[in-house]
Amino acid sequence: MTRILIIGGGGMVGQKLAHRLSETGLQGPGERQVTLLDLGFPDAGAPAAERVTGRLSERTDWIARQRFDLIFHLAAIVSGESETNFDLGWDVNMMSNWQLLSALRAEHAASGGTYIPRLIFTSSIAVFGAPYPDRIGDEFLSSPQTSYGAQKACTELMVQDFSRKGFIDGMSLRLPTICVRPGKANLAASSFFSGIIREPLNGKDAILPVPDSVRHWHASPRAAARFLTHAATLDTARLQGRRALNLPGVSCTVADQIEALRRAAGQAAVDRIKPQPDAAIMKIVEGWPRDFDPARAIALGFEAERDFDEIIATYIADDLPSARQ
Amino acid sequence: MTRILIIGGGGMVGQKLAHRLSETGLQGPGERQVTLLDLGFPDAGAPAAERVTGRLSERTDWIARQRFDLIFHLAAIVSGESETNFDLGWDVNMMSNWQLLSALRAEHAASGGTYIPRLIFTSSIAVFGAPYPDRIGDEFLSSPQTSYGAQKACTELMVQDFSRKGFIDGMSLRLPTICVRPGKANLAASSFFSGIIREPLNGKDAILPVPDSVRHWHASPRAAARFLTHAATLDTARLQGRRALNLPGVSCTVADQIEALRRAAGQAAVDRIKPQPDAAIMKIVEGWPRDFDPARAIALGFEAERDFDEIIATYIADDLPSARQ
User: Fold this and answer.
1) Less crowded by CB within 10 Å, the N or C end of chain A?
2) Cβ–Cβ of A150/B142 closer than 8 Å?
3) Active site residue B315
4) Whole-model pTM over 0.80
C-alpha cells in the first residue's frame, strides 16, 4: 500500500494528478491511498481520495506524523500575486516549505532514520531570468527576476540539501507554463496563455495582454500529471545530486497558438481574441524563458506534447466536454 | 559622512576590510564612521571603529534603526561546521539573513521609501556543485553539494529579490577561497589551503589532508578587502539584475602552491608539510570548483592576484611580521 499526499490537491493540476492516480496508479495497478490537502476543493472532485481542508503551514506536523510514502507539493501563491503581495509570497512559497521540510526531517529522526519520504516539489521555469540563450540548457543559471521565481529557487535548494542529507528523497520539477488550463482565469501573469484558447473554444471572448510575437514554453495539464507520476517512481540516484530538473515542453509564439486555434476551431474562434495591451503583465512575461533544451529530463524519460495543436487537442479531449455541461 | 557597518567585523576578512577603510576609505578620502558587529574581537583590532558585541539575529532591528549607508555582511557558520551542525548552519546562514533583510525592508518602509542601504553580502564559490566544466562561466548553474553552499545560494536569491523590489541595493560576492589566512586554523574544510603555507612560514608543521593534485581557486585577504570596497561603490545598474557575481582569483593545484612556497622560503619550509589524508575533508573538497572564467567581474573592475607567488608575497608583506611579533 502506497500512501500518497497531494499538497494543493484541490487545484487544477492537483485534481488532474489525483484522477491519474485513481485511473492508472503510479506504474500500473497497485494499492494506493490518496489524500488531498488544500484550502478548498471543487464540487465534482477526484474520486477515492480523502480530502483534508487546511493551510500547509498549520498542517506540517500532521503531515509528518502521517508518514506518507510519497508527497506531491503543488501548493503556491501564484506569480502575479507573489509580485504584488511580497510578504504572502515569501511566507507561503518559502517559509511554509522550510517548515514542511523541517517537520519531515524531525519525523525522519523520530523513526530512527528509516522514514525517508519521496517529495516531488513543483517548481517553475520562473527560476530563470533574462537575458537567455536561444535555448536554455540544463546547466544555465537560476537568476530569477520575480519574487515567485526566487521563492521557488530557494525551495529547490532546500529540497536538494535535505535530500543530500538523506532526510527526504526529493526532487523539484520546473514545470513549463501549463496550458490550456480549464476553468477560470487566475492571478498568474501567465493566465492569458490559456485564456486565449479556452475562452474562444467555449464561445467566449478572451483578452490578449501581450503582442503575438511573445514566445513561451508550454505543456498540457495531462503532461503535468504525467511528469509528476514519472518523477514519483524515478530512481533518484540517476539525478546525481542535481535534484532540480528542466522539463520538456512546446516552444511557440502567441501567433503560433492562435494559428493552432484556427486549425482546431476556425476563424470565428480566433475572432474572439481581443488584444488589450497590459504593461504590468508584459513586464513580467518579457522576463520569462522562451525555449529549452531539456536533455537531462528527456534522457530520464519525461515526455511532453510535440506541438501546440496537440496541446489544444488534449484540452478538447480532457476538459472541453465538462466545460459544456 | 558615510556610515558603514561590518557584520562579522571581528573576523579575519572583516578586520582587513576595517583596516582598508581606515587607510584608504572607499574611493579615496572622505568622512566615514565604521561600526563592527561580531561575537568577539581580536585584542589588537582595527583602529577608529566602534565595536558592538552581539549575535546578528538579536541585532537586526537595531541595525535597521541605525540606517547605515553601507552594510558589509561577512558573518557565517563556516562550511565544515554547517555540514556537521545542520540546524545551526541553516539558522545562522539563512534565517538570520532573512531576518536582517526583513528588518531593512521595514526601515525602508518607515522612511517613506527613501532609506535604501547598499548591502554587500559575502557569498562563496561553494554555491557551485560538481560536475563542472573546465572553467566555470558566469552563467553556470548554482547546484550546491554542501549545506553551506545551499544557504549562501538561498541568501543570494533573497538579496537579489529585495534589491529588485528597491528595498535595498544589494549584491553578493562569490569569494574565492581566501588564502593565505593569518592566525589559526578554523573549522572550514578549506582551512588547510592556508595552513600548508602559513605554518611553514612560521616555522611550524602543517597537515595536508588531500592529494597535491587537488586544484582550487584562491585570492588573498587583501584582494578580498579590495573586492568588498570595490563592490561598495559600484554602479549596481551595471549588474542588470544579476546581483551575484563570480570574482577573479588564482587557479592552481596544491602542488603549485607547494612549488610557490619552495620559491619563497626554500625546501626546509616545504618539508614542514605532512601529508595525512582525511576522507571527510577530501569528500567536501572534491566537490569544489577548480577554475573560473569570471568575465563579468573583470569587466566590472574587480582584480585578484596574478599567481600563487603573489598570494604568498601578500601574506608575507601583510601578515607575517605581526605573526612574528
Assistant:
1) C
2) no
3) no
4) yes
